[in-house]
Amino acid sequence: MLKIIGIVLVIGSFTGIGISQRQQFRGHVMVLGDMLSTLDFLSSELSYHLTSIPDIVAKLAQDSRPSVAKAFGTMHELIQRDDNLSLAFKWMKAFRDCGQEIGLDAEDIAILCDLSEFLGKYDAQAQQKSIDYAKVRLSRQLELASAEMKSKGNVYRTCCVAAGILLVLVLI
Amino acid sequence: MESRLEQAAACLPISLRQRLEQLGGEQQRCEEIRLRIGQPLQVTLGGMERALPGSRLTSEEIAMSFSCAAEYSIHTYADSLCQGFLTLRGGHRVGVCGQTAVQQGQVLSFRCISSLNIRIARQLKGTASPELLAQLWETDGVVSGLFLSPPGRGKTTLLRDIARQLSDRGIRTALADERSELAALHNGVPQFDIGQHSDVIDGCPKAEAAMMLVKTMSPRLLVLDEITSEADARAAEYASHCGVAVLASAHAWNWDDFRQRPLYRQLLDRNIFSRIFCLEADRHVVRIKPQGKENTEC
């Protein structure tokens, strides 16, 4: 009986490790999707309502998606602070501080930080172009992340299950 | 710091705000905050500019104040910036000067900012006296009135107070608030008391806002701050033909100055306003009467 429980525990925990690795890839894909739709929202608010950037950030801070709420909630808090620091700095700081926590990699963070050079500084059309460019770059990141999830995700899951079985066989 | 001054000064760097605290008891009298590159921070008290002790302003301080005033969002204020101003939350108007970028005769943007003038908007309830309100009232309701004065004598404050009082008496009032100074909407909420029966269109050109208000809100009174163009005059005429009383203001030193200006001569020819008032330097309101009759103070 103890042997069976041990076998189940070993295989289960290795499978868990494999699945959590796959989830990380999946999470990266999802957060990139969230950021792309956030850029769509930003773009619409800029072009249709001419909403100010702090107001857009405040709206996004209330978003139901945890990754968006986390990044823009942090940014909203930074903007509320009375400290003479520029919006561009606060935009970059928010993504640098919590980008990895929400599942973005260094390249994604760099793309989003690059936007700060344009946001709020030019007319809506010019900002629109910079957002479109960021969307193209993020879409490419999304394609890479999806491919990575399909290839490496499955490999991690299968390898971990196999490692669990192997360990069980060795121990038996 | 006094609340209105604090709200208006919120766009300034912390070091400049600290200088304003030196005003002490005079904070409530502060009418304007003026920032000019290479000059000390100045405030206007009783129409006179006074420099506050401290270092001379740098271009970075002015640029920082401008960015903050524009909420780091030039696109939001692009239209008003082309006219040389933007309006802060709370209805405080910021005049902007500097090097402009012009394309095909149209101002695109400001490349460099050299000076800013923050005019502190205050609501003075009771500015419109009962005598003045009586002058705007006839047996069948409110009549159209035009208020003349040079800048800074309180036309907007007076119009806002008349609108508030008449609205609270049950007159359905519509405000075409192009510069966000009459009601100063923020998230749809008026920052000034404009009465219980008032509707506002904010940030839209006066003429278009007036048409929309007359067509959709069926007001009995339409308030237009500063008639400055032929389109504004046409909108006032349209509203008046629809049976809506129009309260408006115009820049003029006095009655003679007003009559000399071509746009205002057309306005007079259209017979839109049955009452014309002049705001004197001491902020008294004087009703201009047709030739042969004596002007009366309200």
Rg of chain A, rounded, reads 21 Å
Shape of chain A: elongated
Distance between the termini of chain B: 34 Å
Which regions of chain A contain 5 or more consecutive residues with pLDDT less than 50? Answer: none
The class by helix and strand makeup of chain A works out as mainly alpha
Helix percent of chain A reads: over 70%
What is the count of distinct domains of chain B?
A: 2
- Let me know the CATH homologous superfamily of the largest domain in chain B: P-loop containing nucleotide triphosphate hydrolases
Quick overview of this protein structure:
Chain A has 172 residues and is mainly alpha-helical. Chain A contains six helices and no strands. The radius of gyration of chain A is 21 Å and the shape is elongated.
Structure explained in plain terms:
The complex is a heterodimer of chains A (172) and B (298). Chain A has 172 residues and is an all-alpha fold. Chain A has one domain. Helix content of chain A is 84%, strand content 0%. Chain A contains 6 helices and no strands. Chain A has helices spanning 2-49, 53-61, 66-80, 87-102, 106-114, 124-171. In chain A, helix 1 packs antiparallel against helix 6 (124-171) and helix 3 packs antiparallel against helix 4 (87-102). Chain A is elongated, with a radius of gyration of 21 Å. The model of chain A has no long low-confidence stretch (mean pLDDT 91). With 298 residues, chain B is α/β, with parallel strands linked by helices. Chain B has 2 domains: 3-119, Beta-Lactamase, CATH 3.30.450; 130-297, Rossmann fold (3-Layer(aba) Sandwich), CATH 3.40.50. Chain B is built from 10 helices and 18 strands. Chain B has helices spanning 3-8, 14-20, 59-69, 78-82, 130-135, 155-168, 206-217, 230-241, 255-260, 262-269, and strands at 30-36, 42-45, 48-51, 85-87, 93-103, 106-119, 137-138, 141-142, 145-149, 173-177, 185-186, 189-190, 198-202, 221-224, 245-251, 275-279, 285-288, 296-297. In chain B, the strands form 4 sheets. In chain B, strands 13-10-14-15-9-16-17-18 form an 8-stranded mixed β-sheet, sandwiched between helices. Chain B has a 6-stranded antiparallel β-sheet with strand order 3-2-1-6-5-4. The longest helix of chain B has 14 residues, at 155-168. The interface between A and B is medium-sized, with 19 and 13 residues.
